UniProtKB/TrEMBL annotation:
<dbReference type="GO" id="GO:0006888">
    <property type="term" value="P:endoplasmic reticulum to Golgi vesicle-mediated transport"/>
</dbReference>
<keyword id="KW-0653">Protein transport</keyword>
<keyword id="KW-0812">Transmembrane</keyword>
<keyword id="KW-0333">Golgi apparatus</keyword>
<dbReference type="GO" id="GO:0005789">
    <property type="term" value="C:endoplasmic reticulum membrane"/>
</dbReference>
<dbReference type="GO" id="GO:0005484">
    <property type="term" value="F:SNAP receptor activity"/>
</dbReference>
<comment type="similarity">
    <text>Belongs to the synaptobrevin family.</text>
</comment>
<feature type="domain" description="V-SNARE coiled-coil homology">
    <location>
        <begin position="89"/>
        <end position="149"/>
    </location>
</feature>
<dbReference type="Pfam" id="PF13774">
    <property type="entry name" value="Longin"/>
</dbReference>
<dbReference type="InterPro" id="IPR010908">
    <property type="entry name" value="Longin_dom"/>
</dbReference>
<keyword id="KW-0256">Endoplasmic reticulum</keyword>
<keyword id="KW-0472">Membrane</keyword>
<dbReference type="InterPro" id="IPR042855">
    <property type="entry name" value="V_SNARE_CC"/>
</dbReference>
<keyword id="KW-0813">Transport</keyword>
<keyword id="KW-1133">Transmembrane helix</keyword>
<feature type="transmembrane region" description="Helical">
    <location>
        <begin position="151"/>
        <end position="169"/>
    </location>
</feature>
<dbReference type="GO" id="GO:0015031">
    <property type="term" value="P:protein transport"/>
</dbReference>
């Protein structure tokens, strides 16, 4: 380089690879690395949400040019490091709140499912109780009929003998 020209200073390069897509940013040396990676992470999440399954099938250059508007808006948010740091903190807090909300929703659904299952089990036990009562009565009737079939002929013969004895000696 000629001596009259300013020497270029190397700029920090940050990149993130997610789902076979490379996200790259070049920032000033004083820009915090955590914010750069937070920016890249936000881009990767939005890109995966918007274009995720289509990445492998696209063969044309500039297929995702529509993503530029999101990148520009997000870059504006991250330009001021104070705003970006607050935004990053809020994003993390928001993510944690969403996680807690998902967990609570899942727990509530499980509780409702258990309550529904308990109601179903109560109905089934009531039905089982009434059915078992029917079967118990049916079993008594079957046992009584079996006993009649077994002892009725003997009882009839004994009664006939008693009648004959009474008639003959009585």
């Amino acid at each position: 380089m000629p001596s009259g020209f300013p020497q270029p200073r190397p700029l920090p390069l940050s990149y993130l690879i997610a789902d076979n897509v490379v996200f790259l940013t070049i920032a000033d040396k004083s820009y915090p690395r955590k914010l750069a990676f937070s920016y890249l992470d936000e881009l990767s999440k939005e890109f995966a949400t918007t274009y995720g399954p289509r990445v492998e099938t696209v063969r044309k250059p500039y297929a995702f040019v529509g993503f530029d508007t999101f990148m520009s808006k997000t870059a504006r948010l991250y330009r001021d490091t104070r705003t970006a740091a607050a935004s990053s903190g809020l994003d993390k807090l928001n993510d944690e709140l969403q996680d807690v909300t998902r967990i609570m929703t899942k727990n509530m659904e499980e509780l409702l499912w258990r309550g529904d299952s308990l109601d179903r089990m109560s109905d089934l036990s009531t039905s089982l109780r009434s059915e078992s009562e029917k079967y118990r009565k049916a079993a008594r009737n079957i046992n009584f009929n079996a006993m009649l079939r077994q002892y009725a002929p003997l009882g009839a013969i004994g009664l006939l003998i008693l009648i004959l004895l009474y008639w003959r000696f009585g």
